[in-house]
Design goal:
Blueprint (H helix, E strand, L loop, with lengths): L14 E2 L5 E2 L15 E2 L5 E5 L2 E4 L7 E3 L4 H8 L6 H5 L6 H14 L2 E2 L17 H10 L5 H9 L2 E5 L3 H12 L4 E5 L23 H12 L4 E4 L2 H6 L2 E7 L4 H9 L4 E7 L2 E8 L7 H11 L3 H10 L7 H19 L9 E6 L6 E4 L13
Parallel strand pairs: 8-9, 8-11, 9-10, 11-12
Antiparallel strand pairs: 1-2, 3-7, 4-5, 5-6, 12-13, 13-14, 14-15
Helix pairs in contact: 4-5, 6-7, 6-12
GO molecular function, one term: ubiquitin-like modifier activating enzyme activity
Organism: Luteimicrobium subarcticum
Protein name: ThiF family protein
């Protein structure tokens, strides 16, 4: 089954083809909205499948396949680029009525979007105006304009505490994704073992980690505002990322719960990293819940945890630090963008050498008292 805009019955929603490719069906009534100024969704690819048949997009979750097109219609859609579609229909020999019919179909399928929004929100801070992220963001944004997401990110504040290889990678990833304000906390000097693809440079050795990362962010994304950590700035952050070694500091995390500050735990181990849980205070399991579950599994865990927390900062293996930084960045961005956070009530465990994340679910612990116990 495929879409034939001129022959399908009205008001049939897009449905998947047998091979899983989404298919557009025509709308019955005219849509409200300025279709005369509508665009193809930013970043969408127009792919030729055969005579009279196009596919818009390559992501199986959002791609739209349309057939029954005349040669002029195929040329029109294929040459659209970033211009309003209606403006170029006539020059390709597509009548206004037919153009409007096709625009309605593609609008309902999410391949065509209304004109870009007026930029009343903060300016985009991501490098290059966020062009590297725009196509992906546009595919999941309800309005089809990833620029809306980038402007919302520009108004957000994220704190990153712990700036070795993994934490430095998280800070850089958030800045490049357009987060407007970063709060950095780690005054320890950069060690030679902190140097790496996601971490610091050789010239940073001996410099305070937070200062080295601030310089990296300034070079990467000059519009991002960077401040050093303070108790007040942590309370005002939208998300705090806690990057630690061996075992999470549940006391510090508990203070964030008390201040109603969302936070993500990232813990580096001997040969791996655990990302999560993401704690939404009062609504998802906290780090003390996790600690209590571990005590239930191993009565000696509290004794070992104390020793682990007292240990010095450890090395961060290159591959798992890179994967951990990417996963943590994605979790934070999901929260900022209003999308489901996969690590809310769960952890992603990344072990060397394969570095393939494995998910582990967590439940509220009845003895915790973090207010999310049913």
């Amino acid at each position: 089954m495929s879409a034939r805009p001129s022959t399908r019955p009205p008001d049939v929603p897009p449905t998947p083809d047998r091979d899983g490719t989404p298919v557009a069906h025509p709308a019955g009534a005219l849509l409200t909205g300025p279709l005369a100024r509508a665009h193809l969704r930013p970043g969408i690819e127009v792919l030729w499948r055969g005579t009279g048949e196009l596919q818009l997009g390559s992501d199986p979750r959002s791609a739209v396949r349309v057939d029954g097109l005349a040669p002029a219609e195929t040329r029109w859609l294929g040459a659209a680029g970033s211009r309003p579609l209606a403006a170029t229909a006539r020059r390709h020999g597509v009548t206004p009525d037919r153009a409007l019919e096709l625009l309605e179909v593609l609008h309902r399928a999410g391949a065509v979007v209304d004109p870009p929004p007026v930029a009343d929100d903060p300016e985009i801070t991501a490098p290059g105006g966020g062009g590297g992220d725009l196509a992906a963001l546009s595919s999941v944004d309800a309005d089809g304009w990833g620029s809306r997401v980038l402007r919302r990110r520009a108004a957000r504040t994220v704190a990153v505490l712990g700036l070795g290889r993994t934490g430095a990678g998280i800070a850089a990833g958030l800045a490049s994704a357009g987060v407007g304000r970063l709060v950095l906390g780690d005054a320890r000097p950069v060690q030679a073992t902190d140097v790496g693809a996601t971490g610091h440079r050789l010239r940073d050795v001996g410099v305070a980690r937070q200062d080295a990362v601030a310089e990296t962010v300034a070079q990467l994304s000059p519009a991002t505002h960077v401040r050093t950590s303070s108790a007040e700035r942590l309370r005002q952050a939208d998300v705090v990322v806690l990057v630690e070694h061996r075992a999470a500091d549940t006391a510090r995390a508990g203070r964030l719960v008390g201040a109603d500050v969302a936070h993500l735990s990232v813990v580096l181990h001997e040969a791996g990293v655990t990302v999560g849980p993401f704690v939404d205070p009062g609504r998802t399991p906290c780090l003390r819940c996790v600690d209590l579950h571990r005590r239930d599994d191993d009565p000696r865990w509290p004794t070992m945890a104390v020793q682990l927390r007292q240990g010095t900062s450890g090395a961060e293996e290159s591959a798992t630090a890179s994967v951990g930084a990417g996963l943590a960045t994605a979790q934070v961005l999901a929260r900022l963008d209003g999308l489901p956070v996969r690590t809310a009530g769960a952890s992603l465990e990344v072990l060397w050498p394969d570095a393939v994340p494995r998910i582990r679910q967590w439940q509220p612990h009845a003895s915790c008292g973090c207010h999310c116990v049913p």
